[in-house]
Amino acid sequence: MKYILSLICVIFFLAFIPSTYQTTDKKDYDHFLIQKSEESTQKLQTEYLFWKNKLNASPYQYPYLVKMASAKNNLFKKDGQIQHLTEATELLETANNMVHCKDASILRALAKNYISEHRFLESLEVLLAAQKIGTNLDQTNKMLFDIHMELGNYSDAEHYLIHSCGHLGEFDYLIRRSKWEDHKGNLSQAIYFMERGLKVVTLAKNKSLMQWAITNLADYYGHDGNIQKSYEFYLKALSMDPTDAYAKKGIAWIVYSHEHDTQEAIRILNHLESNYQNPDLLLFKSEIAEFDSNLDLKDKLLTQYLKVLKSTDGFGNMYNKYNILIYSEDPEKRELAHKLAKYEVWMRPTAQSYSLLAWSLFKMGNQGEAVDILIDFVKDKTFEPEPIFLMAQILNATNHSSELKNLKKELLESTYELGPVSEQVIKNI
Question: For a tag site, which of 144, 220, 307, 428 has the least CB within 10 Å?
Fold first, then answer.
């Protein structure tokens, strides 16, 4: 009887343990949510105007254009306003024209902006032009690794990694090796090399690269299931820069995906929206609304998101992935989703692009063609959870049960990354 009573007590106790482990604490980050980015953006605006005045006085001094572009790029990172990025690109294009495409450093800067704008083929073109010039060739070749990874040219990317990206003691090599290992599905190795990279830039006291490495590690730890460490690293990033929007968004994701505290996640996102104008936040809020079963709010937020994209020049192809998924749910826009998916495959024939093409076909009723694409171009071609999630849903709906067991197991290990809405879908597969 004594043992039975003890067992009943244990069961009663376990029944009242929260289902999700509480990782975050408002006291850790509340003081960061009152931080405004006006001061830092004002400094960058002043810097931009300084170089603009210099250019007005000496219109043929193209280095001033490069300085102006740098200030604009930094403004984009601070407030997320797309016009800063597009203006920076235009300034670099002007500088490039002034030197008749003969300055490799300008070509590299332009290639970096093209990547940010998802203009990947144009980025490759200017990097190959910089490679022909040959100045600081190692820097160009490192960026060629980056663009080939974006384009899905993995054999070319591996060639540059092995032959042109430096060695184990260099930050540039370590972060690219980390990206390569992540692509190969070796997350523990990706973390290892990123941690080594952080040590290198910490010793060098390079604060901007430290910030970058810390937030990347926070992402990796989260993907690896180490939510506590992920949270600690986002806080570490905020201790270095209290206005870091990416780190705040990372904490909001932990609060939502891990703890299912939608009200707190919205509170963090509302703070972000007061300083950081980016359509990502509307997409995030729409997912939270869906999880809360507030479908009217979800639709309202998605409509607002699409309106922002339509009303603001410069987004280009940056949100094609999300748009394909959204349009695929609307019978009147499925042809547009299919058109965008075909363009993505043409531009960057990765497993993710092919999964989006298969999804658009599936939603149009072309199930056989969708499955064929998955088998040929997605299955065993990626470790990313998003394309695997789309593949699993299509295979489940088309009675390919033999393929699903391992996929479901893999997806259940990625529910934090995919989010609670996707988790419910996965459990029903």
Answer: 428
Report whether 419 contacts 256 (CB < 8 A).
Answer: yes
Query: pTM surpassing 0.90?
Result: yes
Per the document, the length of the chain is 429
Whether the per-residue pLDDT at 13 is higher than 60: the answer is no
Q: Comparing 243-311 with 319-429, is the CATH topology the same? A: yes
**Cα torsion 158, 160, 164, 169: sign:** negative
What is the Cα–Cα distance from 318 to 308, expressed in whole angstroms? 13
Q: Is 337 left (phi over 0), alpha (psi -120 to 50) or beta?
A: alpha
CA 284 – CA 250 distance, rounded (Å): 11
Question: How far apart are the C-alpha atoms of 124 and 114, rounded to whole Å?
Answer: 9
Question: In sequence order, what are the residues at sequence separation of 6 or more whose Cβ sits closer than 8 angstroms to the Cβ of residue 104?
Answer: 130, 133, 134, 135, 136, 140
Tokens of 102: 């003969």
Q: Are 378 and 351 in contact (CB under 8 A)?
A: yes
pLDDT tens readout for residues 97-134: 999 999 999 999 999 999 999 999 999 999 999 999 99
CA atoms within 13 A on the CB side of 244: 25
Whole-number Å distance between alpha carbons of 361 and 358: 5
326: which DSSP letter?
H
Domain layout of the chain by residue ranges: 243-311, 319-429
Assign 21 a pLDDT band (cuts: 50, 70, 90): low
CATH code of the domain made up of 243-311: 1.25.40
**In this structure, are residues 198 and 210 in contact, taking their beta carbons and an 8 Å threshold?**
yes
Ranking 172-181, 304-313, 331-340, 413-422 by mean pLDDT, the lowest is 304-313
What sign results for the dihedral spanned by CA atoms 150, 154, 156, 159? positive
Question: Cα Rg for the chain, rounded, in angstroms?
Answer: 23
CA nearest neighbour of 87 among 42, 117, 53? 117
Interatomic CA distance for residues 382 and 390, integer angstroms? 12
Question: Right CATH number for 319-429 from 1.25.40.10, 1.10.1530.10, 1.20.1050.90, 2.60.120.10?
Answer: 1.25.40.10
Separation of alpha carbons 245 and 235, rounded Å: 12
How far is Cα 88 from Cα 74, in angstroms, rounded to an integer? 10
User: One-letter amino acid identity for 83?
Assistant: Q
Phi-psi region of 148 (alpha: psi -120 to 50; beta: other; left: phi over 0): alpha
